Amino acid sequence: MTVGQQRAWDCHWPELGHEVTALPEGPLDVTTWFGRRAPLVLEIGSGMGETTAQLVAAQPEVNYLAVEVYKPGLAQLMLRAEKLGVTNLRLLRGDAIVLLREHIEPASLAEVRIYFPDPWPKKRHHKRRLVQPDSVELIASRLAPGGVLHLATDWENYAEQMLEVCRAEPQLRNRYADEPGDWAPRPEWRPVTKFENRAHEEGRAIRDLIFERV
């Protein structure tokens, strides 16, 4: 990590972060951790925090959980959050599926966001993709009725897989089933990342999918 990232980690991780493997058994006590009750948003794979910090700052009314495996990315997110003065962000390092299965209560999430997950482009690696029937079933079970699963990717094949998997999940319905191709319009509030800009430069279309818990 950089000097700045290490400082952010040393200063803020004890208060803002937990290792998923070190969590006590049972549901995560988010009310105590955040010090308030508020709609709970979970972002899976916050990367270097470029988008996440802006989203958290724009939604002070929600409790925002970011789960990521990359330690320097979490440190950088804390740096960005510090500069923006946000207080409604908490971080978890580790496996999002373990977090969801063992520490997030059913029907407790207002939204789950998965933006530009690793596409594992080679066909033999597709099984490693995050968005699979089992993971979407688990995510859907953790959403409150009316809660949202918002996905975005710049890989056409992965977008089609996401759409197929979410359509097949009986707990979910597509908010934009009447739109061309069933794709959601790109939300203006989702910040444009360097990955998204690169995708545009390379001629790849960005696809958003927004499903809600029935």
- What overall geometry do the principal axes of the alpha carbons give? globular
> Using only CA atoms, what is the Rg?
17 Å
Q: Which strand-content bin applies to the residues? A: 15-25%
Question: Counting H and I runs of at least 4 residues, what is the number of helices?
Answer: 8
Helix/strand/pairing category: alpha/beta
Please outline the major beta sheet. Answer: 8 strands, mixed
- CATH 2nd-level architecture of the largest domain: 3-Layer(aba) Sandwich
**SSE pattern, N- to C-terminal:** HEHEHEHEHEHEHEHE
Strand order of the largest sheet: 1-4-3-2-5-6-8-7
Mean pLDDT: 96
CATH class of the largest domain: Alpha Beta
Terminal CA distance reads 43 Å
Which spans of ≥5 residues are poorly predicted at pLDDT below 50?
Answer: none
How many strand elements? Answer: 8
Which labels suit this protein?
22% strand; eight-stranded mixed β-sheet; Rossmann fold; 8 helices; alpha/beta
Structure in words:
Helix 1 (3-16) packs across helix 4 and helix 3 (50-58) packs parallel to helix 4. This protein has an eight-stranded mixed β-sheet, with helices on both faces. Strand 2, helix 3 (50-58) and strand 3 (63-68) form a beta-alpha-beta unit. It is α/β, with parallel strands linked by helices and 214 residues long. It contains eight helices and eight strands, in the order H-E-H-E-H-E-H-E-H-E-H-E-H-E-H-E. The relative contact order is 0.15. The chain has two domains: 1-42 and 57-98, Vaccinia Virus protein VP39 (Rossmann fold); 106-214, Rossmann fold (3-Layer(aba) Sandwich).
